[in-house]
Amino acid sequence: MNQAATPYSNETLDEVRDCLATTLQLGESAASFTAETRLLGAVPELDSMAVVTVILSLEEHFGFEVDDDDISADEFATLGTLCEFVQSKVDS
Description:
This protein has 92 residues and is mostly helical. The chain has a single domain, classed as ACP-like (Non-ribosomal Peptide Synthetase Peptidyl Carrier Protein, Chain A, Orthogonal Bundle). It is 46% helix and 0% strand. The model has no long low-confidence stretch (mean pLDDT 94).
């Protein structure tokens, strides 16, 4: 069952990209990330431990909490899917 995608703003995209860049120490390479950029399995710095760190960073930056049941690899498929997840948490 696919859930409808949660629309997000360019500002959310920029902020999530910045969180990833800072947390994963990606430097300028993150500037080229678009909504379609694959993350999990494509960005070497994003391993299982880094996912936890990124979630904590997003929680702190956007002011929400993530339960273990809320997140799966699907949310980290692309920058866009991660932004949709963040926006859904911010909106709830």
